[in-house]
Amino acid sequence: MSMIERLNRDCFCVSLDRRALAHALESELGQPGLYTLIQHRNPHMFSAQPVFVATRHIARMRDVVQAVERVASLPRFEQTVLARAPAAARHDPGNRGIFLGFDFHLEGESLHLIEVNTNPGGALLSAVLARAQRACCEEMQAMVPSAESVDAFEADIMAMFLREWRQAGRRGEPQCIAIVDSEPTSQYLYAEFLLFARLFERAGIDVVISDPAALRMEGSRLWHRDKIIDMVYNRLTDFGLETQAHAALRHAWSENAAVITPHPRAHALYADKRNLALLSDVESLRTLGVDSDTSRPLAAHVPRTQIVSAQNAEELWAQRRGLFFKPWAGYGSRAAYRGAKLTKGVWSDIVRGQYVAQALSPPGERNIGDANAPQPLKFDLRAYADAGHVLWFSARLYQGQTTNFRTPGGGFAPVYTEPAP
After folding, report:
1. pLDDT band for position 169 (50/70/90)?
2. Of 102, 197, 208, 194, nearest to 158 (Cα)?
3. How far apart are CA 116 and CA 271, in angstroms?
4. Region 146-175 average pLDDT
5. How far is the C-alpha of 89 from the C-alpha of 97, rounded, in Å?
6. What is the pLDDT of residues 5-31, one digit of tens each?
7. Cis peptide preceding 50, ω within 30 of 0
8. Is the dihedral of CA 18, 19, 20, 24 positive or negative?
9. How far apart are CA 276 and CA 298, in angstroms?
10. How many other β-carbons are positioned within 10 Å of the β-carbon of residue 77?
């Protein structure tokens, strides 16, 4: 057994310094009362223990991220996915969209990319968590994220937004950014919206946190009350901006009235789960013009994915125990099902709905608690990546079918790995 596997099994050291976490949230990055807000609303947001990942697996995740980026840049791939995407995705505003979240399952030597997200939560929360880590044993000393690495990650995030501004053809800097989600104060990750607001404010940019219904188009500009909105940090899960409640934002998108990021085009190119059916099929990749160096890591690390249809429904039902079913435009594990637990009624909904079937890829395990009563939790890994470059790794610990932030001892966890030689 490797050192990394032994640490995930036998290390029960508590690396989270909760006083340091409160200080990071309330003094350095957030605002007074933010830690109390999280403790009250989200008691299982942060795990007290890290997840250990070997450097070879870190390298393999980077290879997969770069391969996906190369595929997404190919004209044939773009034409294929945009042809089936919502109409809004065919508009090209110039800016590529801020970072992506690549979610992986890692069990032993089995590493699989299970999905890609265009509005991945947890980036700044993970950065704050990293600021509150301590080494509790000699083996962990060199694994604890440095303050410099956290500073660099936050600087990269701010730089991405300013790049988006420039790529969209704007000059100078945005004067006001709107962080937009449905009923934002009731969102589970509302605390992260506050952290992003603080990040923007430190850069001298005015910020509003808004429900999309509070936005309006007037005089070819997007407004929130008496403020012109120059840029929108879009956290909505209506990825095509198709609902009536998002009409003002959809209008602003189509008219380039504000720089919106991430946006429908980015979701279509990267996060529509039907894309996984292409990425996991070597023949499809070859048809799209993907070279062997790019297709190799995808073939090894993207589990076989199929789009559910009436034509393959009977075959997929027979194979269901080895499959996981997800809506192709879904998010956050909503309406996702493990095939072994499907009822005939749910299966009928899946066949009529918009689903993909993905080969099961078990998550890894991390023991928490203590040596006398270890409690195994599942974990997944998230790589925050921009333009093919991984900026940060984070993990999530949980019990049950999917990540849920309801597990005592679970939540966001830092990724610890061996230091570079």
Report:
1. very high
2. 197
3. 5
4. 96
5. 12
6. 888 999 888 889 988 888 888 876 667
7. no
8. positive
9. 10
10. 21
Find the farthest-apart pair of alpha carbons in the chain and give their distance in angstroms, rounded. 67
Nearest to 68 by CA among 268, 262, 276: 276
Q: Which candidate, 348, 303, 344, places its Cα nearest to that of 322? A: 303
Using CA atoms, how far apart are residues 34 and 381, in angstroms rounded to an integer?
Answer: 26
Helices (DSSP H) in 302-380: which residue ranges?
A: 313-318, 344-352
- Residue entry with tokens 């999905």: 115
What value does the mean pLDDT of the chain take? 93
| pTM metric for this prediction | 0.95
Q: Is the distance from CB of 305 to CB of 359 less than 8 angstroms?
A: yes
CB 253 within 8 A of CB 217: no
Locate the domains of the chain by residue range: 3-275+363-416
Query: Is the CB of residue 303 less than 8 Å from the CB of residue 112?
Result: yes
Contact 85, 268 (CB under 8 A): yes
Q: Which residues of 305-316 are buried (b: 16+ CB within 10 A; e: fewer)?
A: bbbbeeeebeeb
Of the candidates 28, 44, 9, 11, the one whose C-alpha atom is nearest the C-alpha of residue 132 is 28
Structure tokens at 47: 């795990």
- The CA-to-CA distance between both ends of the chain, in Å, stands at 21
Give whole-number Cα distances, 149 to 200, 381, 415, in Å.
19, 18, 13
